[in-house]
Amino acid sequence: MQNSFSYKDQISGFQNVSETVKVIEKIAASSVHRLKEDVHCLKEYTTELELTLEKLSLSYEEHEHSFLKQHTSGKKALILLTGDRGLVGGLWHMLINTFLDHASEYQTFIVIGAKGEYYLREEDIMIERTFSSASDVDQMTEYIFSAFEQGRFSHVDVLYPEFFSLADQKPRLVQFLPFVFAQKKQETDDDVSSGLQTFEPSKSKIFSWFLLRYIETSFRKLFMETKLSELSARMITSERASTKTEELIQRLTLQNMKERRRILTQKQLESFTVHML
What we know:
By secondary structure, the protein is α/β, with parallel strands linked by helices.
């Protein structure tokens, strides 16, 4: 049987764990609400950019921008978006399992986040480049754009954890480059020409500017959504861990009380037996 000091040491240890987990949960929760707003704003912005690009693309039959071209040479690349920390339940494992299901379709891999790099190294996957999940996003997009324009990449897809709710995040594979329009709005030739006459002399430059902003913003949205999914999973995991820790503390406290009561009862019986003799 454990003595009272042993129970107290265990309870103290679990209380320290509980406090740490609660701090992690609060940090994640505070960031989740901010990121949800950021992702929502980016979605609204990318939607407006896409509508503008659709209108511009309808004013002529074909645009020769390199980000719209279907390349026949070069490698098919996959970008894996992860994070740098754990305590996110099975989010990273679920993402890696999806990656392994599709890995044979690609010739080169680019990873954002230390966790993604770690898991792929464990699977003996060769990684072309690894970027930090926080500071190297702009550097990575510049690298991807340059490689695609030079023809080193023929196709670029992104695998990331899509955010549905605080308790629901799922892997999603999306095409990144070349960019393909989803023609959602049908307009007459008169509407198109009347709306674009002012920009006709610099149409190509305007189109290029909007396209670059759209692709950069779309990728940043995916990155922010990955971070949102990570923090949501960490918050839920921390909440569960906190609940389990409190249950352990209560159970140990009860066992400690029972053991103390048993020892006290035993001492009383021994004392009573001595007096009876």
